[in-house]
């Protein structure tokens, strides 16, 4: 009804301005502008507000990279645009002076084919900061000392069974499988802590990596340096060992992903998509120094060679239709966790609302079934249904 009112008002004002005396035309023009603004205004639904929380997204075009040799000047990489430069891990909450300067920029790009997801990264090191690379043995804890590039991958977006790759400027790699985030009682499966055949061993066989120092040198701080990383992640290994099967890469499918650059024994954390999540205590979204929050990671969308989806639309315009439900489920998880830390038990939904521990959920239908050993919550936003439990296992139940 309001739409028709303002449309009628605008028509009347426009007609009046055409026949009115000259002295009335300026105020009538202002009134017309006000009517046009009112007509264009739309109430911000909860789903719209949640889309504002949408993380970074990269559209990976189809293309095969060969060989994997650290040379990012190969013709095939020209198909792929560079990402925006990395920012401090806390995003808007980053303390003053922690954001990387242009001389310390980090960027990534991606391509894919039927077997691999290809990742390229370039990292600048300003004069006075050393490019550190000490670890030479596979599956060493690289971030403890070295300049470190990291890839985090959760194809199913379930927050369990996700993968992490760390690599230094000597092409030393450490591959980890996390059964769930550390803060949910999760742990590492890797060749660092176990031998092949032991329960906590995990490693990859088809992964390809290469690095190249393109400016300066390792271990020499007085001059600027730059190093490049080139990685091929085999889909079969990326999709393995998770409680839910992620989508096979095809035009229009997507995975959750993030990247991190760590310097100075972890005192510097620069990332592609900042780690910002709901804080029940502060009742706002807060940046965290923690890469192991998979619900905050970004998206890689698989597109054709031109960056298009099957319907001809641009991959840049794609958004995960399940994100509003996923986002609400993640906020509910953080509220339940904070409640239990404060009280020693799991909450009922009305207790979270009474304590104002949740963001606005007016467009979501929420069910919370608590048990002595945990809970299962189900969220519906529009035609999307998502379930999350006390261990952060997130499942998409249905979609429109």
TrEMBL record:
Range of residues in the leader sequence: 1-16
Gene3D superfamilies named among the record's database cross-references: 2.60.40.1190
UniProt keyword list: Signal
Keyword Flavoprotein: no
Protein name per Swiss-Prot or TrEMBL: Carbohydrate-binding domain-containing protein
Taxonomic lineage of the native organism: Eukaryota, Sar, Alveolata, Dinophyceae, Suessiales
